[in-house]
């Protein structure tokens, strides 16, 4: 009997650990969704809504299903996944066999619940017809893709060595601008001066974050150098691609013409890359931040070495 009891204790502890990890993932996902929930969580007005409805009478949803809010959907999911990955790394969950998978599962469960709840609410109010089916399928498919991207980010931040972590932070940085925009300027609200100033500052947070991450990762190996170059390339191309896709998806007149929509997205992408302010400035700020952070980290290490020697 005593032998059986000793055998059961680890299993019980393991089950409790998995439950805690699931809760960590779910809590992190909820924190990511807050960028949308703080706006009141009312479904944005829909072009294909069956009845005339005031904004305050739209149903409550856990995700902002709208072709005009694709960036916010991706951002809240990736932000929550990044939080989950960071917590997993700090708690060293990767050293437990089921730690990181359980945290990832907790986050995915929350996202799937949010997706299904929003899907059901939106489908109940849309006009019948092919256009509504295609519209809803595109939003559901895009959300699923965002969840997959979120899992990739979570795993990179939670488990990857320094180069992979830098790439994960860069991916988060590319979409964090839209997430910050959802916090400082809630979806559907008019701009007031303090919020506009906050949004203006928030647009530089991605470059600063990437610069600090690259300085922390360093360039001591080929892998780290390649990760740094890839991160800067992503920081240059990613925001332009993100904006181009959102702009094309939000152009109502192109909704029934996927080829023309893709062409328009390509034109916006090329235009943004050709504008130094929209592309290279982010990279330049990241490089400057990286250099400053490298100096700061070196000073900190030297001081610690002197303190240890004394």
| Low-pLDDT residue intervals, each spanning 5 or more residues | 1-13
Largest sheet: none
- Report the helical percentage: over 70%
Q: Which strand-content bin applies to the residues?
A: under 5%
Shape: globular
How would you spell out the order of helices and strands? Answer: HHHHHHHHHH
Q: Structural class, from secondary structure content?
A: mainly alpha
Instruction: List the domain count as a whole number.
Output: 1
Q: How many E-type strands?
A: 0
- The span between the termini is 57 Å
Mean pLDDT: 82
Helical stretch count? Answer: 10
Radius of gyration: 22 Å
Please provide a brief summary of the model.
The protein is mainly α and 310 residues long. The protein contains 10 helices and no strands.
Written account of the structure:
- The chain is mostly helical.
- It has one domain.
- Helices cover 75% and strands 0% of the residues.
- The chain contains ten helices and no strands.
- Helix 3 packs antiparallel against helix 4 and helix 7 packs antiparallel against helix 8.
- It is globular.
- Mean pLDDT is 82; it is low at 1-13.
Write the layout of secondary structure elements.
Elements: H1 2-37, H2 70-90, H3 99-125, H4 130-159, H5 162-184, H6 193-202, H7 205-217, H8 222-249, H9 258-273, H10 280-309
Helix pairs in contact: 1-2, 1-3, 2-3, 2-4, 2-5, 3-4, 4-5, 5-6, 5-7, 5-8, 7-8, 7-10, 8-9, 8-10
């Amino acid at each position: 009997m005593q032998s059986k009891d000793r055998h059961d204790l680890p299993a019980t502890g393991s089950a409790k650990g998995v439950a805690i990890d699931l809760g960590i993932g779910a809590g992190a996902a909820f924190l990511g969704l807050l960028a949308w929930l703080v706006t009141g969580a009312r479904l944005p007005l829909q072009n294909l809504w069956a009845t005339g409805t005031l904004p305050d009478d739209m149903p409550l949803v856990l995700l902002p299903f709208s072709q005009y809010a694709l960036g916010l959907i991706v951002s809240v999911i990736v932000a929550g996944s990044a939080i989950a990955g960071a917590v997993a790394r700090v708690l060293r969950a990767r050293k437990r066999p089921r730690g990181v998978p359980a945290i990832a599962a907790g986050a995915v469960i929350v996202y799937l619940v949010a997706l299904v709840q929003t899907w059901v609410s939106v489908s109940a109010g849309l006009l019948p017809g092919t256009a509504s089916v295609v519209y809803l399928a595109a939003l559901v498919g895009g959300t699923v893709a965002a969840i997959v991207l979120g899992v990739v980010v979570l795993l990179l931040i939670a488990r990857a060595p320094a180069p992979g972590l830098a790439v994960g932070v860069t991916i988060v940085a590319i979409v964090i601008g839209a997430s910050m925009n959802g916090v400082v300027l809630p979806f559907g609200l008019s701009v007031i001066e303090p919020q506009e100033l906050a949004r203006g500052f928030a647009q530089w947070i991605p470059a600063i974050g990437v610069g600090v991450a690259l300085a922390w990762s360093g360039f001591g190996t080929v892998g780290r150098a390649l990760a740094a170059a890839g991160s800067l390339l992503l920081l240059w191309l990613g925001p332009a691609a993100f904006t181009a896709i959102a702009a094309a998806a939000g152009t109502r007149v192109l909704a029934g013409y996927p080829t023309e929509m893709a062409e328009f997205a390509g034109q916006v992408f090329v235009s943004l890359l050709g504008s130094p302010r929209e592309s290279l400035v982010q990279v330049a700020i990241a490089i400057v931040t990286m250099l400053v952070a490298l100096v700061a980290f070196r000073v900190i290490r030297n001081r610690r070495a002197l303190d240890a020697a004394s």
